[in-house]
Design goal:
Length: 175
């Protein structure tokens, strides 16, 4: 499984002459070193007895080895933005989280679609934001986290008049 570190792809083999040779892929060069790799993918390791003064070299053999994907993890969950108040404009609902893959995915509500964009909303109400660590070539996506509950509060109502002031003298006709 992918760890981010180089891993030996096979264990050492044994042969008649004690002169085992290995190479990674068809373009590799034979050496006594066991091949290692880092990335999650499938590799072909070739090996043979290189022979000596008493023995001929053996035919080349190969083995296929796969380093499987690791599972992405959320290293810091997103947090709700606080003190949001209705403005009529879209507002981001959370402060971004972090993952070991460097990418996070978010969705708004249980029926939302995951995206790398932080969810936004306009209306004054409560929202549920779900999240997970994004996968890549070396990691599968993490399990879903959340919800993070976020509220956009109602704005204070205002009253305004077309005229700044009105004067009325007692006894004048109504207007």
């Amino acid at each position: 499984t992918y760890t981010g570190e180089a891993q030996a792809l096979i264990n050492a083999g044994e042969c008649t002459t004690g002169n085992m040779q290995y190479k990674l892929g068809t373009d590799g060069t034979y050496s006594a070193n066991i091949p290692s790799a880092t990335d999650a993918k499938t590799y072909t390791v070739y090996y043979k007895d290189a022979g000596n003064s008493n023995y001929n070299a053996s035919d080349e053999s190969s083995i296929t080895v796969t380093i499987g994907k690791g599972t992405a993890t959320v290293t810091k969950a997103p947090t709700a933005k606080e003190n949001l108040t209705y403005t009529g404009e879209a507002q981001q609902l959370v402060i971004a989280g972090e993952s070991n893959t460097g990418s996070m995915l978010y969705k708004l509500g249980t029926d939302g679609t995951y995206s790398a964009d932080i969810p936004t909303a306009t209306e004054a109400k409560e929202y549920a934001v779900y999240y997970k660590a994004a996968g890549n070539d070396n990691y599968n996506e993490s399990a879903e986290g959340g919800p993070v509950t976020v509220t956009i509060n109602k704005a204070a109502g205002t009253i305004s008049y077309a005229t700044a002031s009105v004067s009325k003298t007692f006894g004048d006709a109504p207007f």
